[in-house]
Design brief:
The complex is a heterotrimer of chains A (about 375), B (about 250) and C (about 260).
Chain A (H helix, E strand, L loop, with lengths): L9 H26 L3 H15 L4 E2 L5 E2 L4 H8 L1 H19 L7 H26 L4 H30 L6 H33 L12 H8 L6 H17 L4 H12 L8 H34 L3 H9 L2 H15 L8 H6 L1 H32 L1
Antiparallel strand pairs in A: 1-2
Helix pairs in contact in A: 1-4, 1-5, 2-4, 3-4, 3-5, 3-6, 3-7, 4-5, 5-6, 6-7, 6-15, 7-13, 7-15, 8-9, 11-15
Chain B lengths: L1 H8 L6 H4 L2 H17 L5 H17 L4 H11 L1 H12 L4 H9 L1 H27 L2 H10 L4 H30 L10 H28 L16 H23 L2
Helix pairs in contact in B: 3-8, 3-9, 3-12, 4-8, 4-12, 5-8, 6-8, 9-10, 10-11
Chain C lengths: L10 E9 L5 E10 L4 E5 L6 H8 L7 E6 L2 E2 L5 H7 E4 L3 H4 L5 H11 L4 H14 L15 H13 L5 E5 L7 H13 L3 E5 L3 H7 L2 E6 L2 E7 H6 L1 H6 L22
Parallel strand pairs in C: 3-8, 3-9, 6-7, 7-8
Antiparallel strand pairs in C: 1-2, 1-4, 4-5, 9-10
Helix pairs in contact in C: 4-5, 4-6, 5-6
Classes of the chains: A mainly alpha (about 375), B mainly alpha (about 250), C alpha/beta (about 260).
């Protein structure tokens, strides 16, 4: 998705550069307000984390794999300001050191991937967290939806930038369809990984999830008071983090224990009553995800075999010579998402993919609603 | 990233290009790329001239052509796509309609290919003649906000440490017989990512403690600074100025 | 040699109690005096409050009750910068301590933050690195050094500030025997007050004539290191265990010169 030099003309590159600089300046101020003098080490370490985690490969199927973009993850974990800073620094370093993303396109890349992704993801995340019941699962679901939408949102932002200053003669509609379509697919992977990662962090150090502050704290407090025997453990879990900054300096053993607990992916400290619905919900969620991915695969494969709606229209109107062109434009941009999906499938299966994406978005919405209802029912029962 | 890559990125040398102050080089490369991007795509010869200019810089920096080309190869999968896509993507219909009508498409592909490649080449030359540390000093000198420079320098310092942790976690997973083969293993991988985040964040907190213990109050003391003489600026400006001349000629010629 | 009557002790902690914001109390009235030039080991089981105590020494944590004075200067907000210059803490993980891109810059960080510049700064850095035998590594990035080298550089970063007291958190952890000995040689050669937090009892015996045991948030014992290590009951009570086959009675402790 890193835009190279020459893709966007000079005036728009400069303009996006100004936008990016403004966004970074605002974020600098915001981050400093939140973290004061801790900004540099914390943001630096989180940037290093984003960089490292982009190298973590998530196998999809049959030898293909995807990896995280990290914008939504950063926004949820460390907040929008620090998130923008971290992703911007990662992009800057990738541009300067690895020539990944052009220097003149830095403004485009930052606006697109650091600003839009982060802001959209964080906004959505907060909205869902505010509206839905305050539970740990809400955080996971909210992360999923936030990440799912943030990636196509970046694609939309890119299309807007392209409409203003694109150098290639491709119809805006085509670019839009291609970019958004591809990125809906990428967004599914991004959403799954982001939700799982945030879920893993929430299970161990809920205080570190910026976006979930005040969400996770309440149930933990409630648990501690009524049950005398279970309480001390819960209190320690809930309150440990506050002491952590100081204790962490000497007790590295703590961290390793933490990570081992994480490896088993099921949080061990959860009281038994809460565990059962959680697990079944996870299963439902997994099943949904698997179904969505299956659909995406089948539909795009089918679509690649027979040109469908969009292609047909293009053919009839005699504009499909440009379709070839659009494929040439979007494929380099897609290389950061789910890799190795052959381009014939991509260009052929756009409509299918968009359809699946929409279905999934609606499905997630329904899922959220059901969850909320079930959660309220549960809280009424107990 | 970090050391592993950093060492491949930077090529030690004593050439005049290496000796130029980093901020001059960054400014020069940036202006050069900006000029390249502003060049009309029809001026094919101009892009040739830019390539010759960059080749000149590479020679002056004693960076072997093979090295630059190899770095280009790593960075240009998108170029391969740009070249191949119009011919293979749409199957038989390319032969039917493509060749006669794709002129503007070809121009676009050429435009992106040429400008993108020149941009990558210029960045590669910059990264291979400037040390990581110097790059950061250069950015600082170019008035990049100091907080941003600090974040970048922490990222570079700890990129390795964190990648190492990630590697160790992978080995720990494999040692327990786990191998990620598909989507159903994402949960475990994501837990690792989550653990990695926690470790990174906690390390950030410890680093902050260590900094505060040595008198950090929010601003980094200026330990090293880079300065450039007028002559050095002139040397550095040679590249973008020549390019500008080429570009202007490109606009004036029909 | 200085006159103990006129020189204030390097470190004086009295009645120090502290509870974390969450209510967990870690220190319950610690009294500790470390005279100038002394080398003292701070022993204690996990969770005894050792790290909490250390973080009070340079004002990262502020005492609930009680006082900490460093060479006569009380630890308080008003002169935190001076306190942090006087108290050099070497943290356990050198990767946390060495946060700058090169060894030289890292060692220069402390003095530069205190306002030192130019030739004076260079001289300070050179001297600190020479004292730990790392002068030729000045321009290397920290992550290219071995663990032992990194720990030595971490000591240098603190020495460069010319501290009144050097506080080491687990200095021997993760070191191979040779690096361990090299670090011991370096620490012995320094003419600075040392407070060493450690679980490594032989190391404490080797380097520190005096030890204090912190247990349950109070100083549970204070005396000659050899005496303490030989007191089996005390050791058991505070979960301090000697490594297999190590008999502190059999060790002839070198006589330390009094400074």
């Amino acid at each position: 998705m890193h835009v190279p030099d020459g893709f966007i003309d000079a005036p728009v590159s400069v303009a996006t550069g100004v936008v990016a600089a403004g966004a970074v300046a605002v974020s600098l101020r915001g981050a400093r307000r939140e973290l004061d003098e801790r900004t540099a080490p914390l943001a630096g370490l989180v940037a290093a984390f984003i960089f490292a985690v982009q190298m973590l490969n998530f196998p999809v199927a049959a030898g293909t794999s995807g990896h995280l973009l990290g914008g939504a993850l950063a926004a949820i974990l460390v907040g929008p300001y620090t998130g923008v800073l971290c992703v911007s620094v990662v992009l800057l370093m990738q541009g300067v050191l690895f020539a990944d993303g052009g220097l003149t396109a830095l403004g485009v890349n930052i606006t697109d991937m650091a600003l839009v992704t982060t802001v959209v993801a964080y906004g959505l995340f907060r909205a869902i967290v505010k509206l839905a019941p305050h539970r740990r699962r809400t955080v996971t679901v909210a992360s999923f939806v936030a990440a799912l939408i943030s990636v196509p949102a970046a694609a939309v932002a890119f299309t807007v930038i392209y409409a203003l200053g694109g150098t290639a003669d491709v119809a805006i509609g085509k670019v839009f369809a291609a970019m958004v379509g591809v990125h809906v697919l990428i967004g599914i992977g991004e959403a799954a990984i982001t939700a799982l990662t945030v879920g893993a962090v929430v299970a161990v150090r809920p205080d570190l999830v910026y976006g979930a502050r005040g969400v996770t704290a309440r149930p933990l407090e409630i648990r501690s008071s009524p049950l005398a025997p279970a309480a001390p453990g819960a209190v320690a879990r809930a309150e440990g983090p506050a002491a952590e900054p100081a204790a962490a300096t000497s007790d590295t053993s703590d961290t390793s224990e933490t990570s081992e607990a994480l490896e088993t992916s099921e949080p061990t400290g959860t009281p038994a009553p809460a565990a059962a619905p959680r697990r079944s919900a996870r299963r439902v969620w997994w099943a949904g995800l698997a179904a969505a991915l299956l659909c995406a695969g089948v539909v795009s494969f089918y679509a690649s075999a027979s040109p469908d709606g969009l292609e047909k229209v293009a053919h009839d109107k005699g504009i499909d010579q440009k379709a070839e062109d659009h494929a040439a434009k979007d494929s380099p941009l897609a290389d950061y998402g789910v890799k190795d999906i052959t381009d014939a499938r991509l260009s052929g299966g756009l409509a299918g993919v968009i359809g699946v994406g929409a279905t999934l978005a609606v499905g997630s919405g329904v899922f959220v609603v059901i969850r909320r209802r079930r959660a309220t029912a549960e809280s009424e029962r107990g | 990233m970090g050391a592993g890559h950093a060492h491949k990125l930077y090529r030690e040398g004593r050439s005049p290009v290496h000796a130029l102050p980093p901020h001059c080089k960054i400014a020069a490369v940036f202006c050069f790329v900006l000029v390249v991007v502003s060049t009309p795509r029809e001026a094919v010869w101009a892009f040739g001239a830019y390539a010759v200019l960059l080749a000149g810089v590479a020679v002056a920096a004693r960076i072997p052509a093979g090295y630059v080309l190899r770095r280009l190869l790593i960075e240009i999968p998108f170029v391969a796509f740009a070249v191949l896509m119009p011919f293979i993507a749409e199957g038989p219909r390319v032969e039917a309609l493509g060749m006669s009508l794709s002129e503007s498409g070809l121009w676009s592909a050429w435009n992106i290919l040429a400008k993108g490649t020149l941009g990558v080449a210029a960045s590669v030359l910059l990264a291979s003649t400037t040390e990581l540390r110097a790059l950061l000093l250069g950015l600082q000198r170019l008035r990049m906000p100091s907080l941003l420079v600090q974040i970048a320098s922490f990222m570079i310092r700890y990129g390795d440490v964190i990648s190492d942790e990630m590697r160790r976690m992978r080995i720990a997973r494999q040692s327990r017989g786990f191998e990620a083969r598909g989507v159903r293993h994402w949960g475990v991988l994501a837990s690792s990512a989550g653990a990695l985040f926690i470790r990174s964040y906690e390390r950030g907190e410890r680093v902050h403690l260590a900094m505060v213990s040595r008198g950090y109050t929010g601003t980094m003391p200026v330990i090293d600074d880079v300065t450039a003489s007028r002559t050095q600026w002139m040397y550095a400006a040679a590249l973008p100025l020549t390019a500008l001349a080429v570009c202007l000629t490109g606009w004036m010629l029909p | 040699m200085t006159d103990p009557a006129t020189t204030p002790p390097s470190l004086q902690v009295s009645g120090l109690a502290y509870a974390y914001p969450d209510g967990h109390q870690a220190l319950f009235g610690v009294d500790l005096t470390v005279a100038r030039g002394e080398r003292v080991a701070l022993l204690g089981p996990n969770g005894a409050g050792k790290t909490t105590l250390v973080l009070h020494l340079n004002g990262i944590l502020t005492a609930g009750t009680g006082t900490v004075t460093v060479a006569g200067l009380p630890v308080a907000k008003a002169h935190l910068a001076e306190i942090r210059r006087r108290v050099g803490i070497v943290f356990q993980d050198p990767d946390d301590q060495l946060f700058m891109p090169s060894v030289r810059e890292d060692v220069a960080f402390g003095p530069a933050a205190a306002g030192l510049r130019g030739a004076e700064l260079e001289e300070r850095v050179r001297r600190a690195l020479e004292r730990v035998g790392m002068a030729e590594f000045a321009d290397r990035p920290p992550h290219h050094l071995s663990f032992g080298q990194r720990r030595r550089v971490a000591v240098a970063t603190v020495l460069a500030m010319e501290p009144e007291i050097l506080v080491l958190d687990e200095p021997s952890s993760n070191l191979d025997p040779a690096s361990r000995r090299e670090l011991a040689d370096i620490l012995r050669s320094l003419e600075v007050t040392v407070l060493m937090v450690t679980h490594d009892l032989p190391y404490a015996l080797e380097l520190c004539p005096r030890s204090v045991v912190l247990s349950g948030g109070v100083i549970a014992a204070d005396g000659g290191t050899q005496e303490l290590l030989c007191d089996e009951e005390l050791m058991r009570e505070h979960r301090l265990e000697l490594p297999f086959g190590f008999d502190p009675r059999s060790v002839r402790v070198p006589v330390f010169p009094v400074r």
